[in-house]
Amino acid sequence: MHEQGNFPPPENPLFSILHEKVEDGQTASCEKDFESVSLTNNFYTISLKNIISGEILYGRTKYDCSTGTMIFTAPNQTMVINQIVFSSELYYISFHKEYLIGHPLFDKIKKYNFFNYNVNEALHLSPKEEELIKSIFRNIQTEYHNNQDEFSKNLILSHLDALLHYADRFYKRQFLNRKEINQALFTRFKHILDMYFEANQLEEKGIPTVEWLANQLGVSHRYMSDTIKAETGKTAVDQINLYLVEEAKNLLLKPNASISETAYKLGFEYPQYFSRLFKKKVGMSPKQYVESSMMN
């Protein structure tokens, strides 16, 4: 990666931090002497940049240029970068998972869903948040360029841990600030489920996966799940299950309906799985629900 960008060799084979500063009134291309490149890395990356033009394609979606933006990428993802021009400063951290061995981050990093968001789901920072993140980048940079000793790695990882904690906090703030966008996404989510059900796709193809629904919405499945959780307090899987249960209530009360037929119509391969889910969500079995409704 350093060779591709004409940067000096990294000081650590498993960890790198880059910083480029553009003078006021100037802009720079972060791609040096090549206009377009496709990169597939086997490491994590975190970048903070102010993009003013160009195009990034990541996760099948294009990045909508904005300022004060953090982008996180996971290993084995492909990013296509085309004629990117940035202003102000560019910070870029890359690290291999092996660098985290022996540190709590080795397991903790798996819980940060934003490493698997699409690029158009980047984190947009307020000026105050951006300055805080830059200060952490600078702390990492200072330690990285010191003569590394037995303390260096733990200090760098402590700062990295703090950076990820703040990113997690700011993403949650972003979800709250984008309530209307969240509501619109959840409305589209339910509409896709309605269309899927009405076209008998449940019976023909089975219960849709979170990945399939996210693809229909044009977002990453991690981002969709986190957005729905922020909006409703329930995961995307929970919402799918609740949808199935609500449709089941209606189907079960139709004349001559059977529990097995209802289960198959809703995409369940085995009726007992359907009955188990129904009882968990409703508090009674499908048979008890039908009997209770007939009594009322």
TrEMBL record:
Pfam family, one: HTH_18
Keywords: DNA-binding, Plasmid, Transcription, Transcription regulation
Name of protein: AraC family transcriptional regulator
Domain (HTH araC/xylS-type) ranges: 207-290
Transmembrane portions of the chain: none
GO molecular function ontology, one term from the record: DNA-binding transcription factor activity
SMART domains, per database record: HTH_ARAC (SM00342)
